[in-house]
Each structure stands twice: as C-alpha cells, then as structure tokens.
Amino acid sequence: MSAAILVRVQAADFDVGAELARLEALGGGGVASFTGVVRGGGGLEALELEHHPGMTEAMMTRIAGEAAARWPLLGVTAIHRHGRLLPGQRIVLAAAASPHRAAALEATSFLIDWLKTRAPFWKKEHFTDGASRWVEARAEDDAAAARWEAKRA
Amino acid sequence: MAIELLYFARVREAIGRSAETVSPPAEVATVAALVDWLAARGGGYAEAFADRARVRAAIGDGFVTPDAPIAGAREIALFPPVTGG
Where would you find the membrane-spanning parts of this chain (chain A) (predicted)? Predict the structure, then answer.
C-alpha cells in the first residue's frame, strides 16, 4: 500500500475539515486525527515556535514515511505551524487514513509522539507580565516516543 | 575547512546570532569536540553549551550523536532538545 503523504510547515492556520476530507476521499474505512492547540492559562500571552527551515520538512516527511511503513495507510497528513500563536490557536495536525481503525488510530498517536520529540521545533512561552521562557523537553514525551521503538524491536 | 554553523532557540539567544562560518583546527574531529572548541571561546558560547547533556546537533538534515565526525560537513546545526507538537 503506497500512502499519499502530505507534510507542510507554515505560519498560517490550516482548515482541519478540508484536510480530513482529503484523507476521507482516499477511500479507506477510517480517518483518525489529532489537533494540537495552544494551551491557555498561567498568564500565557503567546507561544512562539521556532523551527529549522532546512531540516523540519525533511524530518516530518521521514516521520510520515515511517508511519506509512509501519501501518497499512492510504494517507498521512502532518501540518505544523511556526511563528507567534495565541492560546486556543491550532499548532499541529497529525492524521492518518486506513482501511483499519486500529491502524489509523495508532499511526496518528505515533505521528504526534515523534513530531514532539524529533521534528526540529522549539517553543517559547511569552507571559502577560513580560516574562518569557523556553519550554523544556519533557521526559514523558521521550517515553511516549520511545514506546514505538520498543514495539518495532 | 569552513563550516556553516546554525544556532536555534536558547543556543541562538545565548550566542547572539543564528549562523556563522567557522574554520576549526584539524584536531576538532567530532561534534563533541566542535562544541568544546566553541565553548572555550567563553561568553555567550560558554553559556550556550554549559550543559553538554542538553546540546543536540544535526548535520545536513539529520540528527547526529556527539561522536559523529564533522569531516566533510558543510552545515552543522546546534540546538537544545526539541519541543514540537
């Protein structure tokens, strides 16, 4: 099965409905997706996402290809925004279409776990009091990504 | 040989620039040695690389480990652990 892979890195927002419709049109039995949204609270004013322009798309394409190699997928979509985002705004979309429900759900989970830990993005939080700080990598994210290593072995 | 270095996030801020071209001496043969060589410049470089466990590197468009050789590399990116998604 050769999956239709769509990867985009962009400052602009994306239309979740349109992206899922494209996957639905591939004729599989199911489409699963995850949308990441900027979490508000704690005085957060904005989240700034920096990326490595030469490498980010290549790494995301590799991650999408890895998902397509592991599960019987008809389509894989990974869209990630960069720049300054406000609470409630979308950051990332990971989605997969497959004839099989479990494959679509597992592939989506895999995509977001690996995007978090392997795609070259860095987040900086800006607060209403003028303070700012880089978001640290989290051990839970590494553990979530690593469980897919164990499954493959 | 000249290498283009790219810095991101906290590393970029500490050093105060996003890119520069360097020509390390021949004995600087690995990514770890390159980071040591840069950190020895002091100031923002020492600050950027103070915690070696939190320095990541990529040559071209792929991540590499600290023991990766830098011979032949045209572009090396240095940055903190990623926090995407």
Answer: none
- CA dist B39 and B52 (Å) reads 10
Q: Which tokens belong to B23? A: 């020509």
Q: Is B47 on the interface with A (CB under 8 A)?
A: no
Average pLDDT for B57-70:
94
Could you report the average pLDDT of every consecutive run of 10 residues in chain A (153 residues)?
93 98 95 96 96 94 97 98 98 97 97 94 97 92 87 59
Instruction: Give the β-pairing of B19-22 and B62-64.
Output: unpaired
ipTM of the complex: 0.93
Cα–Cα distance list, A121 to A88, A129, B27, B33 (Å): 19, 25, 32, 25
B51 touches chain A (CB under 8 A): no
**Whole-prediction pTM:** 0.93
- Edge to edge, the sheet with strand A83-85 lists A83-85, A44-51, A121-127, A132-134
Angle CA B27–B48–A82, to nearest 5: 115
